[in-house]
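Predicting holo structure, magnesium ion bound.
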Amino acid sequence: MALVVQKFGGSSVSDADAMLRVAKRIVTLKRAGHQVVVVVSAMGDTTDDLLDLAARLTSNAPEREMDILLSAGERISMSLLAMAINELGEPAQSYTGAQAGIHTDSRYGRASIVGMVPERVARAIQDGQVAIVAGFQGVSDDNDVTTLGRGGSDTTAVALAAALHADVCEIFTDVDGLFTADPRIVPNARRVRTLGYEETLEMAAHGAKILHLRAVEFARRYGVPLHVRSSFSEKEGTWISNTTANPALEGIVPEAALTYMKEESVEAPIISGIAHDRSQDKITIVNVPDRPGVAAKIFSTVAEAGANIDMIVQNISHTDSGVTDISFTLPAADGAATLEALKEIQPQLGFTKLQYKDNIGKLSLVGAGMRTNPGVSAKLFESLSAAGVNIDMISTSEIRISVVVDLDDLDKAVRAVHTAFGLDAADSEAVVYGGTGR
Ligand code: ASP
Ligand code: MG
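Done. Tokens:
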């Protein structure tokens, strides 16, 4: 017997039929003798619809009310799913984040989990119930409802799996797992069979939208094996884990998967995949005096404006003039506030102008094998140049190389790099069953 946490995204429970399909899947697993905890997202586009509704009443909604509103989406789906399972003859009960003991800080809209006390959930599964938990929400010390940020149900699921010492956390979505690139850009992308936590983190942090970043961080910290797969097929998905096979999973996961999990650490492929990100913009500060303390002033100002910057490039000084240019990328959403803050320090720092570029895209090549393969960056740059793509900025980590290119060149760049690294599959493997990619 295994304890399995299954998370179903919004596209997997978008209407009553979809809900019933998911309910049957859960019942089958339960009847095979396993303990099942389910985390569910809001149905379809419910969260967006709730946001739109609020926006028609106010442009300045109190954050506390916003979180109560948004948490309702998951409460609708959890109770309906519990009803569907009961109707199929298995006992099931649903729990809000608070009832499931998910304690958070009180940063509405982006709360972090600070403690997990899922004893009601533990009792329910002991009693033979299926426990259904609302994703994406918790409760603060003040007893207020909080939400964990868009896509946060993944994090709920992994946190529960960690707290309950589950054998596996299965993340059900509308694609068959993680791919070597977004199948919408690269139709012959391959499904990745297994991926380490580090590579998954890099992929998620640099634009791969399939998993919530904090969920991966949790999984890594507590060693929770993840299985990302489609709720629309029985196919095996992508295993994210550093552990070896767990005998409790026999009968739940295909035999072959247990073998991959055993073999996984033996020899990781050089490249895991390519992530891309269209959500960043670039600011260039022109003619910045080149003296100590200036960069410190600039980036403390940027940080105070709330922007999380990604790449920074400082050009060499313009000869003799004692000035230089500094460029950095940041989330487009933080652009306006950051420009405003920089304008305020312009008189003090004496740079001549600020340039803003919103049509940039970032490509990130991720793979553990990179540390030991010096040829990787050369191959990356060669493939981009052969495709006629100009590189604007470069940054690297031990297992990632990212480049900023013109937004118009991004898709072409992703395809060229995918081919250059031999990642193309013979046929197209990817099917997007739902449409939202979650
Ligand atoms: N329903 C929330 C959202 O749409 C949380 C989630 O789906 O994970 O962002
Ligand atoms: Mg942009």
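Residues 278, 280-281, 332, 358, 360 surround magnesium ion (ligand 2) (CB under 6 Å).
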